[in-house]
Each structure stands twice: as structure tokens, then as C-alpha cells.
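request received
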Amino acid sequence: MTTQTKPTPRERLLEAAATLAYREGVGVGVEALCKAAGVSKRSMYQLFESKDDLLAASLERRAASYAARLLPEADDPRSPRERILHVFEQLESQAGAPEFHGCAYLAVQIELKDQSHPASRVAHQVKGNLTAFFRGEAERGGASDPDLLARQLILVFDGASARAGIRADKLTGLIVPTVATLLDAADMH
Amino acid sequence: MTTQTKPTPRERLLEAAATLAYREGVGVGVEALCKAAGVSKRSMYQLFESKDDLLAASLERRAASYAARLLPEADDPRSPRERILHVFEQLESQAGAPEFHGCAYLAVQIELKDQSHPASRVAHQVKGNLTAFFRGEAERGGASDPDLLARQLILVFDGASARAGIRADKLTGLIVPTVATLLDAADMH
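response:
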């Protein structure tokens, strides 16, 4: 016999906020969030200061799984070049799903247009971690200019996520050759 | 003595919609739009079917000036390579302004999350024209794979616009070398 813990109201709110904000945008209303979570507004405001804080907490909660779905395992024995390409192969594969709307952490910053919003701060941090991964691999792989290469890779990552999210490009035959060209130019063979 | 035509209510609404949607997002309310335009809601609904149509019309109205601020003149005698780089130099320069929030035509598609929305359709068309410019120059310049290069350039354009818009990167020392690398790899010297 298995025992499964029922999600708490807090967990249900975090899940609803992450899902609905991703699918419909950060403008999703408190009513809709509470309804989706099956939680009263009164309970929501007992658990979170505001919708902004709920949104920020929901983005923070998904940060670990976001990274896990993109990055290679820490003990992945492949070369830095291959570990970087892994991220873009993952993105290309995720972008093919019908429910893909681009990178949640980019979208929230574009939508909020306010870098001091708690959710923007979380998003900025999460993407900073991805840039730091690129920077670290670039350095380990002997890139001629690891800072420039890391900026290029996160730019391609965001451009690709955005364009796939709005269905302007499927990324197939695009991001892997593009990243390979940038890695070549940085002497990361 | 100069005579200046006073903007009509229609023009004031289009201007307010373009400005406020860019600064605050597509969720900006009808009340706020009418207030900024100095037009009653009743008048607005006589001029436009809906806020969605107003938004689409406002994006369409700015399409010509958007292109003019990015593209070289039609009779610009520079090489295709230089004409492509011109677009990115313009973007880098625009991204430095405090009121820059990225490409309006990318943002609206990310925010609406609905490719069938009239405003998304306008935005998709405007960015398609920019991609067509890249494709034409790539072909004229003898790029090894003009389709791939055009997809790469619009990806870099969108990634750069997005990252500068959220203040994650200033683009200086980034997009011109990145585009130059892609042009080199496509044999557009």
C-alpha cells in the first residue's frame, strides 16, 4: 500500500501560479489562480503577501527542475563543447511540444517590464545561473573569450526560446549549427 | 505662420495604444488608453471594434517607422554584409535608451500567447519583413545558405532585443561580433 501526500493549499497555489502564468501571462487574476488551486482568496492572502510574491515563489520553486531539464548531469563525462551543445539539444526537443511557450524566466521579465518586481528578480537569477554554466564550460573548454562566448550563448538561448515560443521557428537545423559556429569561432573544438 | 493639424481622436488612440502597450504591456486597460488619448470609451468603440483591433492597428501604424529606424536606405550603396550589420548597429544604439523595452513586435507576441490574435498577426508580418530583408541581403551577398543565415540573424535580433529590453545585457561588444562570425561562417566576407 502506498501513501501519497495530498498537496497542501500552498503547493496547489504555487503549481497553479506557475502553470497559469506560463500559459496565459503574468496578468492572470487572483480569482483564476485561487479557483485553479481550489483555495479561497482569504487562504491565499494568509499564505502569500500578494500575487507578486506568489508568482515569485512559484518561479523559484520550478528553478531546480528547469535547470535539470536543460543541463547535463554534474558527472557527465563529455567535453565542455558537448555539454554546452546538450543544453541546446534539450531546448530544441522541448520547443517541439505543443504546450511550449518559450522560456518562462524570459517571458516573465518581458511581461512585467519591471526589473525590481520580485518575480523578475527570481527570473534574472535563474538565467544568471544558466549564463554561469555557459561561462564555466567556456573556460574549462579553453574558449578564447569565455565572457563573450557566454553572452553569445545565452543570447542564442533566449532568441531561440522566444522564437519557438511564438511559433516563428521550430529551431530544427538552426540552433545546433549556430552554436557550433560560435564554439568554433571561440576555438572550442 | 504655420498650420499644424491637430491629431484626430483616432490618431490619439493609436498613439496611446502603441505607447502604453509598449511601456506597460498588452494588458493595459481600455480606461487607461482612453484617458491617455483624451477620448471617451463611447468614441473609442465607435472607432474600433475592440481593444484588440485598436492594438493591432497601432502596431500596423508604427511598422513603417520601425523599419526605417532599423534598415539601411534602399539606395544605400554598401555591401550586403554592411547593410546587414547596419541593422544590428541600429539595434545596439536604440537599446541604450532608457525607454527601450525590446522589440515591440516580439513582446506583443510573447505577451499575447495567441498567434491568431489580430495584434500577433501584425507583429508576425512585420518581423517576417525583417527576416525577408536578411534573406535578400544574404542571397545578394552570396551566402552559402541564405535561408539558414536569415533564420540565424532574426534569432540573434530577437535574442538581443529581448535581453537588452530586460536589462540583462547592453549588447555592446556582443551583437556586432556575433553577427560578423555568422556572416563569416556563411562565406559573406
